[in-house]
Design goal:
- The protein has 134 residues and is α+β, with helices and mostly antiparallel strands.
- The chain has two domains: 3-22 and 75-133, no CATH class; 24-72, no CATH class.
- 14% of the residues lie in helices and 28% in strands.
- It is built from two helices and nine strands.
- The chain has helices spanning 41-51, 60-67, and strands at residues 3-8, 15-19, 23-27, 33-35, 71-74, 76-79, 85-87, 105-107, 129-133.
- The strands form three sheets. It has a three-stranded antiparallel sheet with strand order 2-1-9, with no helix packed on it.
- Helix 1 packs across helix 2.
- It is elongated and about 60 Å long.
- The mean pLDDT is 92.
- Bound molecules: zinc ion (2 copies).
């Protein structure tokens, strides 16, 4: 289950929508990350598992056991300059924005209570509003 949460600036009404759980993925044998989303998450994991030559002949539960270390989650980041939401592929640091190259990026989970980049007066609320569930 994934939830979209919208944070709206009380001063100017500017809003940012982020997915609560980030972007889960399964790693393929070629190093490619296959993102999966509810409700097709198990199908995707199984598909990726079958790409690995090591999984030949494994049962479903053995497959999942094998895949556990290959599963990860990319958090979302937010660019305060151009308002883009993008994936953070590497752990531990927030990269420059892929759209505009700005380094004024923050992790999406840090959006609550940050000063609104549009009006620079309001602050995003501590708790966003749930806008979609998939
Ligand atoms: Zn940007
Ligand atoms: Zn604002």
């Amino acid at each position: 289950m994934s939830t979209e949460v919208t944070y709206t600036c009380p001063e100017c009404g500017h809003s940012v929508a982020v997915w609560g759980e980030g972007n889960p993925y399964a790693l393929g044998p070629d190093g490619k990350r296959h993102y999966y989303y509810h409700p097709s998450d198990e199908d995707t994991i199984e598909f990726v598992a079958r790409l690995w030559p090591e999984t030949k002949g494994l049962t479903d539960s053995e497959l999942m056991e094998f895949m556990r270390p290959q599963l990860g989650n990319e958090p979302d980041a937010y660019c305060k300059k151009c308002d883009q939401i993008f994936h953070v592929a590497q752990k531990g640091r927030t990269p420059a924005c892929p759209e505009c190259g700005s380094k004024q990026t923050i992790l999406a989970l840090n959006i609550p209570e940050k000063v609104c980049p549009k009006c620079k007066k309001g602050r995003f609320p501590k708790y966003g509003e749930r806008t979609a569930i998939s």
